[in-house]
């Protein structure tokens, strides 16, 4: 049933011109500018795609974009689905399974995250080197999941060492600070309490956010090498907790965005 649904989605997209993407990209909150660098061939609103999750208010502008970037064919999810919006883990990761069906060979993910490691500053980038799933859910925990691959997917290298090494070299070349660290995924949508931030410090995480981990788990089930960069949008110091304003988070993401775009673009060139 699910497999058939997904196949319908993939067939529709192929019939509508998304024929040969090599790289899949998920753009996080406030991080849409990479799209300006793409020579767009096809742009399809999520609402037009059969069986794609239905839009919430936040999702009016969600679309799948196909075109050329740095000489490669890419497919971009501009707008992602979050568990905190009420989507199921299957829905949150539907786009990843779709891009896999379209033939992507690598997956690049971005997100906005809070800095738990207090030596990392707001506005800087962090390469996710490992994660801790605190969402209490898995996108592989449903009846038909084994039809898509091994549900006991190993998590030895959820983030490709090869891609991460390339990213580190590229950041260095551009003189862009790219921290490395562990990303904790939480359900949200509320932000964390002081006690929760202290817990995240004790767990030796470096950043916290509400996305990415389900997508990476599905990529792992499907054997798609993937990498993810967090844009650190706020500093989560339990001793000096400041009110967080979502508009402020989005503005900070926008300021750091040119660095993310430069790094992703060069990575795509090198793939
Ligand atoms: N917590 C959780 N998610 C976030 C944060 C945060 O502080 N900042 C950006 N996304």
TrEMBL record:
Chain segments annotated as coiled-coil in the UniProt record: none
Keywords, sorted A to Z: Glycosyltransferase, Transferase
Molecular functions per Gene Ontology: purine-nucleoside phosphorylase activity
Domain named Nucleoside phosphorylase: residues: 22-269
GO CC terms in record: cytoplasm
UniProt entry tagged with the keyword Cytoplasm: no
A single GO BP: nucleoside metabolic process
EC number assigned by the record: 2.4.2.1
InterPro entries: Nucleoside_phosphorylase_d, Nucleoside_phosphorylase_sf, Purine_phosphorylase
Pathway: Purine metabolism; purine nucleoside salvage
Family: Belongs to the PNP/MTAP phosphorylase family.
Function: The purine nucleoside phosphorylases catalyze the phosphorolytic breakdown of the N-glycosidic bond in the beta-(deoxy)ribonucleoside molecules, with the formation of the corresponding free purine bases and pentose-1-phosphate.
UniProt name for this protein: Purine nucleoside phosphorylase
Natural source organism: Tenacibaculum jejuense
Protein encoded by which gene: punA
């Amino acid at each position: 049933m699910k497999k058939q649904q997904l196949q319908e989605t993939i067939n529709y997209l192929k019939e509508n011109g998304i024929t040969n993407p090599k790289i899949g990209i998920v753009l996080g909150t406030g991080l849409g500018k990479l799209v300006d660098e793409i020579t767009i061939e096809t742009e399809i609103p999520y609402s037009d795609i059969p069986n794609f999750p239905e839009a919430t208010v936040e999702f009016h502008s969600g679309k799948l974009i196909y075109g050329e970037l740095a000489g490669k064919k890419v497919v971009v999810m501009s707008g992602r689905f979050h568990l905190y919006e009420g989507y199921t883990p299957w829905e949150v990761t539907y786009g990843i399974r779709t891009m896999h069906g379209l033939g992507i060979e690598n997956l690049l993910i971005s997100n906005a995250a809070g800095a738990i490691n207090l030596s990392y500053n707001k506005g800087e980038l962090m390469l996710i080197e490992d994660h801790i799933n605190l969402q209490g859910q898995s996108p592989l925990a449903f009846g038909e999941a084994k039809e898509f691959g091994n549900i006991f997917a190993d998590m030895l290298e959820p983030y490709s060492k090869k891609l991460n090494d390339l990213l580190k070299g590229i950041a260095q070349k551009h003189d862009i600070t790219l921290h490395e660290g562990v990303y904790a995924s939480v359900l949200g949508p509320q932000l964390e309490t002081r006690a929760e931030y202290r817990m995240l410090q004790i767990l030796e995480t470096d950043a916290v956010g509400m996305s990415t981990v389900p997508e990476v788990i599905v990529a792992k089930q499907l054997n798609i090498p993937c990498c993810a960069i967090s844009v650190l949008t706020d500093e989560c110091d339990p001793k000096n907790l400041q009110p967080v304003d979502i508009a402020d988070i989005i503005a900070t993401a926008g300021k750091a965005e040119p660095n993310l775009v430069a790094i992703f673009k060069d990575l795509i060139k090198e793939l």
